[in-house]
Specification:
Elements: H1 12-15, H2 30-40, H3 54-59, H4 72-78, H5 83-88, H6 93-96, H7 113-120, H8 123-140, E1 142-144, E2 152-154, H9 158-167, H10 170-184, H11 188-205, H12 212-219, H13 226-239, E3 252-254, E4 261-263, H14 264-282, H15 288-301, H16 307-320
Antiparallel strand pairs: 1-2, 3-4
Helix pairs in contact: 2-15, 10-11, 10-12, 11-12, 11-13, 14-15, 15-16
């Protein structure tokens, strides 16, 4: 149950296969790419939404979360620092960080586009949401350093909490869900701040080595801005060891006969923006098949994926079919 409780992070089995050995070259996951592609493009295959706005009502203290009957006030006032409760309760995360996709708490309802619009106009709901985010950061051994930029820093008890985080891989699924939810509610700076912090701790300080694969395969790709994703990938590539095994971004190539270096991104920047537009148009009919083909195409052709990795994922799609 733990491995899937925060569903919304792609394949729990795949995401939990983290390993601090980076000496071998990994393969990108098609299923993670498909899941995050659909998230970043607004779930183009979704045909209808519920209209009860239960997530907004929960954040406005009008209803408790189900099935436990707990109100948001209880969580915000008594749960911070209660690490056993935050670790062992597996129903609250879908309510604190709702998504426009199902989770495994069948009593929670999917977020809707109308709820998001109302949420963004409601100061009280936004304030409660960020308090919930800070409670989870504290649980992970972190703190929100700047509410304007979304910068994250170590909490005073970071050593103890980081050790726990390294040993509890199901919490990586929770982080993926939190990042997606932040993006839905337009807290993009908070997404970027958290992902950068986790990459820094994993790659530079080496305090969170076990989280590295999830950070690169999932966390980075919750960022909807291609420009910001590429900044994070460049940072990660700079510190990844050995650098030749880094598969999440374009390696620098020497220009023939030139002294400087060029990157595939600088050569194909205009082409890629046109490709992304074409992909979005290709899935505008809300066809799930087209979504999956678009995700496979992104793996194969995006400069954020190596050519050989894209080919491997295309083979996966052919072998496994739709899921």
């Amino acid at each position: 149950a733990k491995a899937e409780e925060a569903r919304g992070g792609g394949s729990g089995e795949d995401q939990n296969k983290d390993n601090l050995d980076t000496s071998f070259k990994r393969k990108r996951s098609y299923f993670a790419a498909r899941d995050l592609y659909m998230y970043r493009h607004g779930y183009p295959a979704k045909s209808r939404e519920n209209s009860g706005q239960v997530n907004l009502k929960f954040y406005m203290k009008e209803i408790p979360l189900k099935p436990d009957g707990i109100y948001i006030d209880d969580i915000l006032t008594t749960w911070k620092g209660d690490y056993d409760k935050l670790e062992n309760n597996h129903t609250y995360i879908q309510w604190l960080f709702p998504l426009r996709e199902p989770g495994l708490n069948w009593h929670a309802e999917e977020l809707t586009t109308e709820e998001i619009k109302e949420f963004l106009k409601t100061k009280k709901a936004k304030s409660n949401y960020l308090q919930g985010y800070e409670i989870m950061l504290d649980f992970f051994g972190m703190k929100l350093e700047d509410k304007n930029t979304g910068a994250v820093a170590r909490a005073s008890n970071w050593k103890e909490r980081f050790q726990h985080l390294n040993e509890s891989e199901h919490n990586y699924l929770r982080i993926t869900r939190i990042l997606k939810s932040l993006g839905e509610f337009k807290f993009e700076n908070f997404q970027i701040g958290l992902v950068h912090f986790l990459l820094y701790e994993a790659l530079v300080e080496e305090t969170l080595p076990n989280i590295l694969h999830s950070a690169l395969e999932y966390f980075v790709y919750t960022i909807k801005s291609r420009k910001e994703r590429r900044k994070l990938l460049r940072f990660a590539h700079q510190h990844y060891k050995p650098p030749e095994n880094f598969i999440w971004g374009p390696p620098k190539k020497e220009a023939s006969g030139a002294k400087g270096t060029i990157t595939r991104s600088s050569l194909l920047e205009k082409t890629l923006s046109a490709q992304e537009k074409t992909r979005c148009e290709a899935i505008s009919d809300k066809s799930r098949t087209n979504v999956e083909l678009a995700a496979g195409s992104e793996l194969a052709s995006s400069t954020e994926t190596s050519p050989e990795t894209g080919m491997h994922q295309k083979e996966q799609l052919t072998d496994k079919g739709n899921t």
